[in-house]
Amino acid sequence: MGTTKRSFVQAASDSIRNLVWSLYFDDAPSNGGRPFRSIRNLKVWHWLRDFFPITVVKVAELDPSRKYVFGYHPHGVISIGAWVTFATNALDIETIFPGVRFRFLTLSSNFNIPLVRDWILALGLASVSKESCKALLKKGLCPVIVVGGAAESLNAIPNTYDLVLKKRLGFIKLAIQTEGASLVPVFGFGENDVWEQVKDSRLRRWQTYIRHKVGFAPVLFHGRGIFNYNIGLLPYRKPITIVVGRPIHCPYDPNPTEAVLQKVHTQYLAGIESIWEEYKDDYAKDRKRELRIVE
């Protein structure tokens, strides 16, 4: 066997072994992630922060002795504001909130993609599965969940804020079932403004159909180019302001009733609306309409 052929066989064997290990034996995505400070500190994240720019507004202090479940709204096209804030050290979020250790969450399926898996693990991302969330909280880590998910990404229209939140109770239940946990609403003003979606009602029906079948929405979007402002995939240079709201302390209940879930959900909605009313005239001056909870 020639040297080139042996090298190819060895590389293929190593790739298959690494893939099998990643998919079936490595539990990092559901056990707290595997962040590397050097990756989270890359200069590219600082450039991205300054490009829009992205800033954080701290509404209240957070007691580091408590556990927190953060809900981020809106989803936007790819949650770029949340990504830079919570999955990198560009904004020094853990300095802004001393003692609070954040873990940005994503779909479990993203960890099945070779190379992508290693990249997002290095940024500290973890799976949004129930088991993962419980493991994070048990370790004193704080999950950051983009609550609206794929459904809300289809509502990412500039200067509008249409949230998918009416029936989202899973993260509420998670907080209630965790002793000493609080919910913290987080609102990304400008998250929907940095890309445009392709406008077509027939396309929207197709996107909705695909989302119901496979669980994610194929969002078709465009931004700007390098030398033009109308065509391309680069985001528009619009400010994103991440407002971290006041904590909502949850009653501990390992088996909460529907009434308890709805009560805390109502409090959470009030927290989101409070952020909107307090900051909309500062950070959503060009809004086309008021905040809406559409689903």
TrEMBL record:
Record's keyword terms, sorted: Acyltransferase, Endoplasmic reticulum, Glycerol metabolism, Lipid biosynthesis, Lipid metabolism, Membrane, Transferase, Transmembrane, Transmembrane helix
Main subcellular localisation: endoplasmic reticulum
GO terms for cellular component: endoplasmic reticulum membrane
Top EC category: transferase
GO molecular function: diacylglycerol O-acyltransferase activity
Subcellular localization, as worded in the UniProt entry: Endoplasmic reticulum membrane
A Pfam family matched in the record: DAGAT
Enzymatic reactions: an acyl-CoA + a 1,2-diacyl-sn-glycerol = a triacyl-sn-glycerol + CoA
EC number: 2.3.1.20
Membrane topology: Multi-pass membrane protein
GO biological process, one term: triglyceride biosynthetic process
Family designation: Belongs to the diacylglycerol acyltransferase family.
Annotated protein name in UniProt: diacylglycerol O-acyltransferase
Annotated source species: Synchytrium microbalum
Lineage: Eukaryota, Fungi, Fungi incertae sedis, Chytridiomycota, Chytridiomycota incertae sedis
